[in-house]
Write a structure and sequence with these properties.
Order of helices and strands of chain A: EHHHHEHHHH
CATH architecture of chain A: Alpha Horseshoe
Number of strands of chain A: 2
Largest sheet of chain B: 6 strands, mixed
Structural class of chain B: alpha/beta
Largest interface: B-C, 64 and 64 residues
Structural class of chain A: mainly alpha
Helix content of chain B: 25-40%
Number of domains of chain B: 2
Shape of chain A: globular
CATH superfamily of chain A: DhaL domain
CATH topology of the largest domain in chain B: Rossmann fold
CATH class of the largest domain in chain B: Alpha Beta
CATH superfamily of the largest domain in chain B: Dihydroxyacetone kinase, domain 1
Helix content of chain A: 55-70%
Distance between the termini of chain B: 40 Å
Strand order of the largest sheet of chain B: 1-2-4-3-5-6
Oligomer: heterotetramer
Bound molecules: adenosine-5'-diphosphate, magnesium ion
Number of helices of chain B: 8
């Protein structure tokens, strides 16, 4: 079973990963975006870390709800509402249990990713964060490690894709050949989850 | 890094403090990042709130004031604002007549304004939204993010602002805003990339002697790279792209409002020369120009380049365009 | 060469055609290179004529109109106009009340305006001249060319223009113009050189990470090169240099008009941030700011950088500053 | 004796020299000026050539008068009125004779250079065109060739000078180490005179 602390460790690991990789995320957002994805998430996860420390939430759902709201209130851009919705929706699915099973986590994340797709209107193959989230969550049934690896592979697979959503879509054919920054940060998020799971 | 800043993190807050110092007519909440017309709630008018990433100045804060916006919500550089800002701005300007959000069509702006609209409605504020999407360089389809919002934002904010100032109800203000957007198209060209404070180097490599056609306003490259062309060829390309799309939408005749816009680092001297070329191409094509606005209004930090926006304007839109406006960056008749 | 031009030779004529297209209020003689306020001779006012090299737009053509200049004479890029232009402009605006020439202190401008003044007086037009020389980066002595004219030109043209609009006679308009100049000082900083159309490459090499202190507005390097500094240090340096000189001239107290001016390629976002720093330094030094104008007004083509101009303004000057003005680039109250 | 054609050849040679050297003059005007001296003079002397062809003047004085007026009307900047005054004043000194002696030419140019000094307020050593004109005209007593060489040497001698007039003076100490563009064009003008003299 996964307790509240597990979700706090997840968010802490995610914040650390974003801090480490912020420059690379901004770099990736430069040729096919507006060069802010790293600084956006850095701002957001710094705030998430501070919020979780300021008033430590009592349940898994509360951790993710607070993290999601904080991202929405501090990130802006496309990724703020999308990641905010991912976490809020995932949290909501977990109910008010103090501990949840790995299968609960899988189902909740699945609902979270579905909410992201509904909000942003993107589908697999559109060269967005979904191209890491969808295979990642699909592999959660196997293990957290497998999910992280599948997300990482999904992010890498965005390179040859033609973007159909987000800023990269404005480039048309010229979006081909670059890895999507949001898919890359999604892979970091699932890697952080695996890290929290140990 | 050739920037006049203290640190990338403080750029937006620093600018807001400068706006507060220079424009006593504006209420600037630096902490919460909103710029509000003083006395916005008085007069019982519909509120007009816009916002978006910073780096496009004077858009939007420079357009807050009588006859135009009630409030602006600046996000981080090239990053849409967060819903809290729009929610606070809506609350600050709503006189009970409701508020129109003017939203440029970018995924981030759309999602954040949408969330703000939901929160505001929960708080009992009536919200309408208009989505500005005028950039013809981007294919518009159900399966893409759709056309970007660029120069037409100025037309929408000015004309809807005049309608709100005149006391039109929310539905009408929204309807006029949508009409202006539907009648507007833009095309942009970059002669250089821009440098964001966070990145500190140009957002893309553009070798000397080449230009990018069909750029947006966020430092992204365009649809196509070409060897540099003389101003009159650039005018032909930009005006051609805009007019061809304009010819496919109703009304198909009548004069246009023209915005010849600098991206930030193109000298006004050059921009006026380009204006002459734009007007010549329009005359060749038989398009009558009713009003021409030239300047750096919807910019992309220190990008060199320009864009052309045309709006097919009937009598009513022209009258609202000519109505008095008193903002930091646009001012006439008042 | 990242320029939006047709050819270096046609830059000024092309821009004039664009000004004519965008501003029906102005009479533009492209051939003879003068921009005249429509109906300038009506109303029996003193005429106000300025001019100088192009590349500083909106100065001067952007300041032609009610409440400011009667006419502007744009020279080639960074080259003072020829006497024929000022002579024609004087003839076009003189209503018999005489004409004030507003001349920035550069050898070329001084000599050409001087010749024009002589020719005009021969033609029976009364001429007064005011020499603008506000740049504290340059040593003023009998044995040098003296201080350059930069940002204070805007103050002189606005305030003397208001006096002329109000019907003041030539001597008085000239006296007020000289008073404004005497009470004004400026200091400029470049973060990049600019590129003239004729040369096609930057006028000097400024490595990334360095800046030039004490620059003028013609792409010349400054007095000193320094490693880049944060905006607040630049503000401290510029304001310090200006205030120290201002403290040596009478009146030694009273509020100031402040112009925080962009050199052309510095984004407005940065310029507003710099404005916050300028105002903070002024507050520290106990200088009260009555009015603040922020924008790209006296530019140097595509140079990145800024300048600060302060004018110690008494009640009368403030009243004239606030008087209505209606030009392409400066507009309020009308 | 020097006839009207001599003065037309002088102006033609000057125009050719300016055309040839315009880029170098602008280059020289770049580090210590505003990068326009070459294009200024090119515009002016192109107009001079056209004016002299359109209505060929009948006397030496008329050639220089027309050339001077044309420079004043087309050049602008510091060099327009200064060179315009140089030629107008020199022409005026020549009176309405159809032919003039070399001594007349020397005396007239001397008056012209004095007028330049009076108009611009500069003196020898201020790093201006006078630093080529003054030694040049002083050497005219010897020969046109000697004048050209003295002017050339005078221009070269401006390199170590600190500018006290014109734009270069704004640079203070930093004006040292660069050759003055106006002195350089003055040397061209006297070289053109020597060329016309054969
Ligand atoms: N409609 C969408 N659905 C899902 N993900 C999206 C969508 N639009 C953009 N994204 C993701 O957001 C990322 C960009 O985030 P960010 O740079 O922070 O925002 P912005 O594009 O507003 O600057 C993209 O790389 C992409 O993965
Ligand atoms: N006061 C002066 N007296 C004599 N010559 C001068 C004076 N001021 C400038 N000059 C000359 O003019 C030259 C510059 O001419 P030019 O570049 O055409 O004009 P500007 O300096 O107005 O751009 C300088 O190199 C110098 O030789
Ligand atoms: Mg981005
Ligand atoms: Mg962004
Ligand atoms: Mg010059
Ligand atoms: Mg020069």
């Amino acid at each position: 079973m996964r307790d509240t602390d597990f979700f706090r460790r997840w968010m802490a690991a995610a914040a650390a990963a974003v801090e480490r990789e912020a420059d690379r995320l901004t770099e990736l957002d430069s040729p096919i975006g507006d060069a802010d994805h790293g600084s956006n998430l850095l701002r957001g996860f710094t705030a998430v870390r501070a919020a979780l420390e300021a008033e430590p939430p009592a349940t898994p759902a509360a951790v993710l709800g607070l993290a999601g709201r904080t991202l929405i209130s501090t990130v802006g851009g496309a990724s703020g509402p999308l990641y905010g919705t991912l976490l809020r929706r995932t949290g909501k699915e977990l109910g008010d249990a103090a501990e949840v099973s790995d299968e609960d986590v899988r189902k909740a994340l699945d609902a979270g990713v579905t909410a992201v797709a509904a909000l942003g209107g993107a589908a697999a193959g559109d060269k967005t964060m979904l191209d890491a989230l969808l295979p990642g969550v699909a592999a959660l049934g196997t293990s957290y490690r497998a999910a992280a690896e599948a997300a990482e592979a999904g992010a890498a697979a965005t390179v040859p894709m033609l973007a159909r959503k987000g800023r990269a879509s404005y480039l048309g054919e010229r979006s081909i050949g670059h890895q999507d920054p949001g898919a890359t940060s999604s892979a970091l998020l699932l890697a952080a989850l695996a890290e929290a799971a140990g | 890094m050739r920037m006049l800043i203290n640190s990338p993190e403080t750029v937006v807050a620093d600018a807001l403090r400068g706006i507060a110092a220079a424009h006593p007519d504006l209420e600037v909440d630096v902490e919460r990042r909103i710029v509000v017309r003083r006395g916005a709630r008085e007069g019982g008018r519909v509120g007009l709130v816009s916002g978006g990433g910073s780096g496009h100045e004077p858009l939007h804060a420079g357009f807050v004031g009588p006859g135009m916006l009630s409030a602006a919500c600046p996000g981080e550089v090239f990053t849409s604002p967060v819903p809290d800002q729009m929610l606070r701005a809506a609350a600050a300007v709503d006189s009970g007549q409701g508020v129109l959000f003017v939203v440029k069509n970018y995924t981030g702006d759309v999602l954040n304004f949408q969330m703000a609209a939901e929160f505001a409605e929960e708080d009992g504020i009536r919200i309408e939204q208009v989505l500005v999407n005028d950039d013809v360089a981007v294919t518009d389809s159900l399966y893409t993010a759709g056309r970007r919002g660029t120069g037409a934002t100025l037309f929408v904010e000015k004309i809807a602002g005049a309608a709100a100032e005149a006391g039109a109800p929310l539905d009408e203000v929204a309807e006029i805003a949508r009409r202006v957007n539907a009648a507007s198209r833009s095309f942009g060209v970059a002669l250089s990339a821009c440098t964001t404070p966070a990145k500190g180097s140009p957002t893309f490599d553009l070798p000397d002697g080449e230009l990018e056609l069909g750029i947006g306003i966020h430092g992204e490259p365009g649809r196509e790279r070409r060897p540099v062309m003389p101003s009159r060829e650039i005018a032909r390309t930009a005006v051609g792209a805009v007019v061809e799309e304009l010819e496919q939408i109703a009304p198909q005749d009548g004069p246009v409002l023209a915005l010849v816009n600098g991206m930030g680092a193109t000298p006004l001297l050059e921009l006026y020369g380009f204006t002459a070329d734009v007007c010549a191409v329009l005359a060749e094509r038989g398009v009558q120009v009713a009003r021409t606005l030239v300047g750096n209004y919807v910019t992309s930090l220190d990008m060199a380049g320009c864009s052309v926006t045309l709006c097919r304007a009937d009598e009513e839109l022209l009258r609202l365009w000519d109505a008095p406006v008193r903002t930091a960056a646009l001012r006439w008749g008042a």
